[in-house]
Amino acid sequence: MKLAYARIVTEDVPALARFYEEITGITPVGVEDYKEFQTPSGSFAISSQSKIDLHGTGAATAGANRSVILDFEVVDVDREWAALVGPR
Prior knowledge:
By secondary structure, the chain is an alpha+beta fold. The protein is about 30% helix and about 35% strand.
C-alpha cells in the first residue's frame, strides 16, 4: 500500500497554504480554494470545505477531527480490505 496523496480541509486555504509554503519552502500551485504542493515522493493539498463538498458532502469537515483525507494506491482493493478487517 502506498500513500499517494493527502488533503487538508480548511476554511482558510490561503492562510494555511502560506503556512506550509513557509515551513516546506515549496510554492503551491492552484486556485484560491485549492492549493497543491508537489514533493519528490508525492503531493499534498489544501482544500476548502466547499471544494470537498462537490465530491461528497460530509466526506471531511474543516476545523474538526475529520479534516484530512488520505488516498492510498493499491494493486488489489479487495485483498487490502480483507487484510484490514481480518477474518470475521
